TrEMBL record:
This is Peptidoglycan binding-like domain-containing protein. Residues 4-50 form the Peptidoglycan binding-like domain. InterPro entries: Peptidoglycan-bd-like, PGBD-like_sf, PGBDSf. It holds the Pfam family PG_binding_1. SUPFAM superfamilies: PGBD-like (SSF47090).
Amino acid sequence: MRGVQESLAALGYAIDVTGTFDWQTRVATEEFYKDRGVPSDDGVLDVETTIWMPNYAANIESCPATIGGFVAAAVPLATLHNEITSVRVAPIPKDLVPGARHLTVGETTLELGDAGTASPDNGDFTAFAAEPAVIEYLSSDSDLVLTGVLTLADPVRVLTVPASSIFGVGEAQCVSDGEDLYHVRIVASRLGSTLVEPNDPSQVPLHVLVDAPPGQQCE
């Protein structure tokens, strides 16, 4: 089931790879059949009549079957060359700062699309496939997880400030150095510290008050 989910995700369907036939898998399977004009039996993958190929073209390493011969159930028809056709980050972390992103595994960086998917047009897939972590992931029969570093394509300059120093209402947030106000946008917060992005990068405080000034309004 995990392989089917990974293939559906690579084809662009909204599905998480869980290894379990869940509601997402059922809907994605129904959409898969519908997109190809094939009747669907309530989202059930018909393994008796379906040959699952990773792409319209595939590089075959070996083919034990012969022309005109019979292939028994559960016997491999052919062995395909282990080729990566797409890479997808799943699940995408929530509450991310908007912007284009890169995925780095080892020494290789791929450009991700809006759905967290990279194609061979968005990076060097040959180098990606040669990464030791990727080789271990592809060759493992266990539930090994391939991890990488997700970064913004255009870095955001942020300041680390105490959470108590931020004041304002709604989307209007400010910090103060005791004399001036600085409008900021909250990027992330954890362990008592908050990352903020100044609305005006040319005006950055050298220090901020730990506690918001009493009665001060963020306008």
